[in-house]
Amino acid sequence: MTPSLAKTRAAGKRKYRRFPVDQPALVSCLAVPGLVWTARIADVSRRGMQLILEHAAFLDAEIRIQWTNKEIRGTVRHQWQRGGQYRVGVALANSRDSLLLALLARETMALRKLDREAAASAAVLRGQIHEMAGALKAAVRASEIKSRFLASVSHEFRTPLNGIIGFSELLYDAKVGPVNTDQQDYLSDILSCSRHLLTLINQVLDLTKIESGKMDFQYEAVRLEAVAREVMEGVKGLAAGKRIVVGIECDERIGTVRADAARLRQVLFNYLSNALKFTPEDGRIVVRIVPEDPACYRIQVEDNGVGIRPEDLSRLFTEFGQLGTARKAGSGTGLGLAITRRIVEKQGGRVGVESTPGAGSRFWAVLPVHPAGSD
Q1: Count of helices and strands (H, E) across the chain
Q2: Burial label, 127 (beta-carbon count in 10 A; 0-12, 13-18, 19+)
Q3: CA 182 to CA 172: how far, in whole Å?
Q4: Three-point CA angle 127, 146, 194, nearest 5°
Q5: Is 309 helix (H, G, I), strand (E, B) or coil?
Q6: What is the mean pLDDT of residues 71-75?
Q7: Distance (Å, rounded) from C-alpha 289 to C-alpha 300?
Q8: Per DSSP, which regions of 254-307 are E strands?
Q9: pLDDT interval class at 96 (50, 70, 90)
Q10: What structural domains does the chain harbor?
Q11: What are the pLDDT digits (tens) for 307-319?
């Protein structure tokens, strides 16, 4: 095909380009004006239009078409049936350009309306994005100020509190002079409250570090069973007070892993202290350490305590998410499990709980054997 012929055909296609319409119309013949067919206008071009009739009909040459309150006259050029459709090609008797221009004008108005609506929506969206960006910036700023304030205040609190604990221990142990039984009881209460307050301050500091992204991990080769036994030794007094047996089951396949020993002890201590709080006297707690898969291990603390209702499970591992049973069991902030979740997830792990009311709970943490950045 020569270039000139190709250009001629392309120009012809542009000249007779069809515009889809798909609108209802009524068709009648000049020879039989009382007979009307229901049709749809498929498309319009400068050469005419195509009709689709609901039922087969062989029309006379000259027809009338009622469309959008207009009467259009035309001549039937061809009629054919394809599948369930009966199509009629019509050449317009006159006003072909005006008909096409009317169609284009209507489509142009619709497009302009859509453009105006889109522009208005875009303006509203830009305003909302601007407001959200401002609110986010303010929230980030407020969070930074809060974190700095909490860190500063917590450090300032710890200094005098450590002094209170130290001097109280000297008095309690009678190292600066004898104390009677009542005085020793009072000193014991002072020590208990002070240590609890120090725990809360340390938890707030941990949460502040995590939120600000400043919590780092010091990875080393760690034997999990040794860490678990060390933590169990630390809660031995709490367990003995309620005559609770704390056991450990460590799978022999678990050897040395890469972990931050201090943070690992913190996770285990939070789980064990939580289990001791909700396990009745003469109960039992088991620490299980097993492989999860070739790349991860699971630490699970299982108790036969009061258990947790299904509707309360979603509130665990959230900041200050104490349950009703927690408030009855003793004091606390509800931060321990939230910090545990943050510590584990920051190392690429995950936490969870399974519980049956009245039968006990199983809190677990799954951690990678070799966390990212541990080498």
Answers
A1: 8, 13
A2: exposed
A3: 11
A4: 155
A5: coil
A6: 86
A7: 6
A8: 256-259, 284-293, 296-303
A9: low
A10: 19-94 (2.40.10.220), 96-215 (1.10.287), 220-368 (3.30.565.10)
A11: 888 888 888 887 6
- The beta-strand segments (E) located in the chain are 19-29, 36-45, 48-53, 62-67, 70-82, 85-92, 220-223, 245-250, 256-259, 284-293, 296-303, 350-356, 360-368
pLDDT value, residue 2: 55
Smallest CA-to-CA distance from 43 within 55, 54, 35, 51 is with 51
Task: Find, among 197, 171, 175, 167, the residue nearest to 184 by Cα.
Answer: 171
Q: How far is Cα of residue 67 from the mean position of the Cα atoms in its chain? A: 52
Residues in the chain: 375
Distance CA 316, CA 338 (A): 8
Q: Which residues pair with 80 in a beta bridge?
A: 87
Q: What is the distance in angstroms between the CA of the first residue and the CA of the last residue of the chain?
A: 69
Closest CA relative to residue 232, chosen from 216, 250, 218: 250
What's the whole-model pTM score? Answer: 0.54
